[in-house]
Structure to design on (492 residues):
């Protein structure tokens, strides 16, 4: 039975999810499991097993057994499977969006956008025959030719977060298999249902046994994958702390690693910002997806007269945001993922206030009685505040003030050790150009609050937001999931 909102509702009791190994759905050999609730209602949706070393080894063995034949398949034939996968994803896109909303809490419009962006990676991966082309130089020396040829890495494991349960697995899986690798997915134990459906759709698309696998779990499962000698590469998205651990541990095990970590994204609003468009866009950046985006705006620096022009409008807009279950009409802000996430956000806000932050709008304790809700929260802070530096990962926007763009850029550089995203709102091409050259983040927006690259560009975080050399998606993704051989040939 397909994993959908309707099939979950039809169950008499929540079922325990299964792993997918060698083309078969198999119960974990572990007896440990966690409940997966709807974060907007707290109603249980399923149980997720905490797989153990034996489950991981079975998945790795199946992936290794499938890797050679899949890697030897001509790229146009592999692309054929990707086209089938794309069509199946498109056929299921509405159901997928509802599933994302139900297990993650984000509103349906955000979930619909997430599904669309995930499918865009399949679109990109369908170009495998072109993407995998090598290079050559005839007559590099007298009678000698050279060529560079791409080969699969082997077995790739993807470890993904709760906040984008469909899109982030799709950053990895389509490109990894298009490049000829077998792929094992370990989704967040908080949001495993979208990944379950992704693998079901892969199965429906006819992808051969062992080419894709799914292992549910938590710390033990992750540790098993990043240290297993049968895994050649690790793609990870999560917090900065865990990203660093994954990067260091997997690299010590001889694997290639891309580990995407946390963020503290700054927005600069200039006095000439166009308010009618800028205010709702900034609010969506800060409060959309309950602030649980690695590209969410977290600190807003108002430059000069922007303080008087923009701040009242932003507070008025925050008052119009309706909280609730994301499938209900009119709702524009869903819950955070769990009760402990809510308490963590409350604690960070308390610490900020204790350090001198001025509360402008307190969203704590607001929203429906059931569910893990935090309302839009705005505070004025000093550059020394912990709210200027620590990732909150909730619908909290901290306000700084600067006299000019130079000071705003200096505050961004001095308070922010991360380097995921930054944005500027301005009508000045000169200010936008200076921002582009001096901002310290890897993904920049000009009058765009969530500067997410399209699938054919790399997700180019920097500094403490990324550990590795090759980013996710785009040509970087192709480079990461392939190795190169350079052949120098002479014929007598």
């Amino acid at each position: 039975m397909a994993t959908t909102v309707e099939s979950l509702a039809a169950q008499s009791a929540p079922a325990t999810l299964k792993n997918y190994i060698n083309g078969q759905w198999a119960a974990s050999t572990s007896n440990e499991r966690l409940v997966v609730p709807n974060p907007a209602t707290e109603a249980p949706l399923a149980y997720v097993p905490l797989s153990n070393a034996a489950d991981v080894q079975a998945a790795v063995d199946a992936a290794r057994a499938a890797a050679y034949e899949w890697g030897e398949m001509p790229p146009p034939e592999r692309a054929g499977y990707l086209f089938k996968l794309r069509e199946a994803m498109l056929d299921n896109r509405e159901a997928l969006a509802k599933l994302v909303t139900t297990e993650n809490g984000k509103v349906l419009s955000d979930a619909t956008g997430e599904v669309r962006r995930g499918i865009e990676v399949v679109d990109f991966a369908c170009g495998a025959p072109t993407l995998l082309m090598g290079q050559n130089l005839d007559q590099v020396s007298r009678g000698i030719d050279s060529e560079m040829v791409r080969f699969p890495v082997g077995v790739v494991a993807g470890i993904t977060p709760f906040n984008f349960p469909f899109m982030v697995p799709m950053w990895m899986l389509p490109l990894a298999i298009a490049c000829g690798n077998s792929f094992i997915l370990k989704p967040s134990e908080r949001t495993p249902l979208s990944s379950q459906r992704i693998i079901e759709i892969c199965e429906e698309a006819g992808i051969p046994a062992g080419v894709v696998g799914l292992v549910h779990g938590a710390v033990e499962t992750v540790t098993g994958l990043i240290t297993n000698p049968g895994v050649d590469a690790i793609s990870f998205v999560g917090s900065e702390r865990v990203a660093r651990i994954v990067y260091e541990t997997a690299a010590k095990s001889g694997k290639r690693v891309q580990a995407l970590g946390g963020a503290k994204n700054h927005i600069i609003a200039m006095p000439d910002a166009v308010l009618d468009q800028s205010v709702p866009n900034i609010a969506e950046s800060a409060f959309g997806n309950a602030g649980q985006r690695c590209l969410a705006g977290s600190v807003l620096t108002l430059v000069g007269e922007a303080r008087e022009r923009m701040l009242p409008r932003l507070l008025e807009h925050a008052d119009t945001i309706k909280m609730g279950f994301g499938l209900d009409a009119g709702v524009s802000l869903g819950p955070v993922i769990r009760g402990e996430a809510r308490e963590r956000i409350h604690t960070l806000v308390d610490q900020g206030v204790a350090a001198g932050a001025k509360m402008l709008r307190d969203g704590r304790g607001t929203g429906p009685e059931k569910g893990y809700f935090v309302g839009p929260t705005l505070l004025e802070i000093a550059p020394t505040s912990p709210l200027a530096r620590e990732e909150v990962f909730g619908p909290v926007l901290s306000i700084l003030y600067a006299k000019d763009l130079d000071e705003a850029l200096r505050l961004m550089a001095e308070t922010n050790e991360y380097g995921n995203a930054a944005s500027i709102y301005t009508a000045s091409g000169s200010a936008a150009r200076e921002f582009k050259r001096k901002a310290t983040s890897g993904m920049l927006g000009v009058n765009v609050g969530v500067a997410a690259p399209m699938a054919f560009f790399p997700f180019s975080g920097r500094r403490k937001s990324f550990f590795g050399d090759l980013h996710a998606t785009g040509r970087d993704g192709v480079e990461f999931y392939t190795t190169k051989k350079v052949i120098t040939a002479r014929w007598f």
Remarks:
- The two ends are 62 Å apart (CA to CA).
- The chain has two domains: 5-261+465-490, 265-446.
